[in-house]
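[09:14] KT: can someone run the structure on this one? pasting the chain below
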Amino acid sequence: KKNEATVFVFLCIGFSWACWIPLVFAYRSGATELGEMSPITLALWLLGSWMPSLLALFLTWLHDGYAGIKIIGKNLIAQNRRLSGYLVALGIPSLIWIFSLLLVVRDPEFAFPLVVPARWMFIPIGFLAAIPFGPLGEELGWRGYLQPRLLSTLNPVLAGVIIGAI
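[09:31] RB: done, structure tokens below
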């Protein structure tokens, strides 16, 4: 299990960065926003973001077959039943963020003079788009695949610190 964890981490880092290198070149060529990048570069960015989850599914299937993938799914459902912890973890920062944004909309000179209130309609769209393309692309890999393997040899605190550092 320990070797599986090490292989998984190195594969995630390697494959993710192999996908993200075009972003570096696009940025160096002058593209500063996602809208200025080619569709292929954007697809590679998404693929790199989803690499932990994709590798977790592939490696689980490789080692344990379809039964292993079903176990990961059951574990995720069981973890998500404890919704109150997630609501607190997501809710408090979200409320602070929303309150800060409302202050800026009310008085653009308050904190960010360059903020244009007409662009505020993009905030909920960005927030909703960030969920499937951010944490959902990684969570299955780090918590669904790596964490159980680390917990088989390490205590929960050390396993959490390692995953947090990664």
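[09:33] KT: thanks! The CA atoms of residues 56 and 141 lie 5 Å apart.
[09:34] RB: yep, looked fine to me
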